[in-house]
Amino acid sequence: MSDTSSIRKRHREGFRDLNDFWQRLDELEHAVEEMADCALAFAEDPLDRTLEAIRAFEPSVSIIGQVKAGKSTLLNALIGETDLLPSDVNPWTSVITGLHLNSRHRPRDTRALFRFFDAHEWDRLVATGGRLGEMAARSGFEAEAESVRTQVTEMRQTTEDRLGDEFASLLGSSHAFPEIDKDLIDRYICYGDPDELEEGATEGVYADLTKSADLYLDLPGYPKGLCLRDTPGVNDTFMMREQITLNAISESRVCVVVLSAHQALSTMDVALLRIICSVEAREVLIFVNRIDELPEPEAETGRIRTSIERTLSRLGLGDGIEILFGSGYWANCALGDVGAMMTASRAALASLHGGDTEDLQELRARALESSGVAALHRAIARRIVEGPGEAFIADTQKEIDAIIEMTEAVESVAGGTDGSAARPGIGTAELAARIDEVRGETLEAFDENVSGIRDALRERLGRAQETFVASALDALGAHVRTFGAVDAWTHDPANLRMMMKTAFASACARLRREGEAAFDNVLDGMHDVLQSDLGVMRETRSVEFPEQPQHKAPTVLARTLTLDLEAPWWRRFWKFGAKKAAEARYRELILAETTPLVEELVTDFFDPAAARTRDIVEVFLAEQGKFAEAILECVLEPGAAEPRAKGASVLPRLSA
C-alpha cells in the first residue's frame, strides 16, 4: 500500500463512530423489515413509515464562516477530495452546496443537481437592492441605497445578456447531471471573470442565478447518509444569500464555525456570534483554520483559544462549544502532492514537530496529524451520534415498542376468542363514529390551546420589541444630551434577540406539552372505547407516546439588522435639532427592522412547528383507531388474526 493510500485510510478512520452508528441503524432496518413480513394488517402502515424514516435519515452539518476563512478548502479535506469545490469563490456569487455522502435517496441518474432562483426571488433582489439596499434606504442613505440597487441591476443585466433567451427558462428550474466534474461545478458555483465571460468563457456562467447545489458522492469508507453543506460567507458584501445560509443552518443539527487563524479574534465576527447565539451550543463546533499561515502555530493557537473562550464566556456561550485548530491546506497536501507544500506552510509544520524532514512519507503523516481534520471528523461524528443519532434510534425503538404492544394485545384477544364470548356493544360503523368523536375532540382541544400559545407568543414578542424600543430611545436621548449628535454611539440589539429567542423557546415548550396532552386525550378516549364498547382491558401506562419533532432553531434572529451596522446613520435624525421628530423617526426605523422578525418567528417557525406536532397527533390517532378496529374484527370474527411470530422476538433492543 502506498503512503498516500495509507494516509487516506487513516483519514477516513476519523468517521469510525459514525460508521458504527450506521451499522446499528442497518441492523434496526433489517429487524423492522423482518417484523413487517409477519405483521398484522393494522401494523403495516406504521412499519412502512418507520422504514421510510430510517431510509431517509440524513443528518446535516453546515460549514459556516467568513469569506476567505477557507471553508471550501476545509470541506474538500473533510471528504478527501482535494480539488472538488472551488476554494476562491466571489462572495456575491457563492452558492450553498450540499455534499451528500453515499446517499441512499439521490435522484435517479443524478450526481449533480443545481437549482435556480425563481422569478419572484430574482425580481425582489433587483427591486430592493438586496438586504443591504433595504437597510440603507431605511437609514436615510438614499444615495447609498440607489448605488447598491444600481450595482445589482447591472449584475442582473449582465447575467440576462450573457444567458440570452435561456435566462427566462432557467428561473425557477433546475439542471441535473449523471456525473460530476470540476468544469461542471465551476460553471454553476465558481464566479467567473466578467470580462472573460463576455469573451465566451464558461467558468461561472450560471453562478449568479444558482440558488443551491447538491452533489451526490459515493466514497468508500465514508459514512452513508451524511450531508455536509458549504455555505456563503457570512460577510457577503451584499447579503444577497444571507437568508439562504440561515435557512440551511436551521435545518442542520451540527454547525461548524470556521475562523481564519490570522483574523483578529478578540471579538470574533459579530455575524458568526449572532448565528452561534441562535442555535444550541451543543450543536456548535468551532474550527480555527489556516494555522499553517502562523509562524509559531503552537504558541499562537493558545492565545487564540483564550481570546475565543473569553468572548464566548462574555456572551454566556462557553459551555458545550468545542474549539479545534488545524489546517485544511495541510490535510489536502497530505492527501495529495505533499511535496508541493508551500515553504512558509512547511516551516510552520516544522515548528510543531521540532524541525523539518526530507522524508515525504513522514511529512505526509505530520501534515495529516497537524491538520486537525481527523479530530474534526471525530467531533462531528460524536455530535451526530450522541445528538440526533441516539435520539432517532430511541424514537424508532419507542415506535416499534408501541406496535409490538398493540400486536400482542390483538393476538391475545384473537387467541382467547372461541365464539362463546358476548358480542361487543357496537359494530364497525359505530366504532368508526366513536373513533371520529375522539379525533374531533382531541384536535379541537389541541387547535384551541395552540392558538392561545400562538397569541401569547406574538404578545410576548411585541412586549420585547416595545421594551427594546424604549431602552434604545432612552439610551440615545441620554447620549445626545451628554455628547450631542456625534458618531460614537451604538445600541446593540443582542438583548432584543435574546428576549425573542427566550419567548420562542417558551412557546415551543408549551407546544410540546400540548402534544403530550393530546396523546393523553387519545389514549383516554380509546380506553373508553376498548373497555366500555369492546370489553377489552388495556394497560395504558405501558403505551409509548410518539416522539414529537425537533423544532427548527430560530436562525432568523441572526439576520443582519440596520442596528447592527457600525455607521453614523442615526445622526441624520438629529441634524436639524427636532428632538421629537428624530425620536419618532428612530422609533419607526426600529419597528420597521424588528417587526419582520416577530412575523417570521410566528409564521415561519412557530406555525410549522405546531403543524408538525399536529401531524404526529393525527398519526397517533389513526394508529390507535386501526388498533381498535383490529380488536373488533377479532371479536366479531374469531380467528381473523391468528397469533404470529411476535415482533419482540424479531426486534431485539439495540444496545447504545
From TrEMBL:
<dbReference type="Pfam" id="PF00350">
    <property type="entry name" value="Dynamin_N"/>
</dbReference>
<dbReference type="GO" id="GO:0003924">
    <property type="term" value="F:GTPase activity"/>
</dbReference>
<dbReference type="InterPro" id="IPR027094">
    <property type="entry name" value="Mitofusin_fam"/>
</dbReference>
<feature type="domain" description="Dynamin N-terminal">
    <location>
        <begin position="61"/>
        <end position="275"/>
    </location>
</feature>
<dbReference type="InterPro" id="IPR027417">
    <property type="entry name" value="P-loop_NTPase"/>
</dbReference>
<dbReference type="GO" id="GO:0005525">
    <property type="term" value="F:GTP binding"/>
</dbReference>
<dbReference type="GO" id="GO:0016020">
    <property type="term" value="C:membrane"/>
</dbReference>
<dbReference type="InterPro" id="IPR045063">
    <property type="entry name" value="Dynamin_N"/>
</dbReference>
<keyword id="KW-0547">Nucleotide-binding</keyword>
<protein>
    <recommendedName>
        <fullName>Dynamin N-terminal domain-containing protein</fullName>
    </recommendedName>
</protein>
<keyword id="KW-0472">Membrane</keyword>
<keyword id="KW-0378">Hydrolase</keyword>
<keyword id="KW-0342">GTP-binding</keyword>
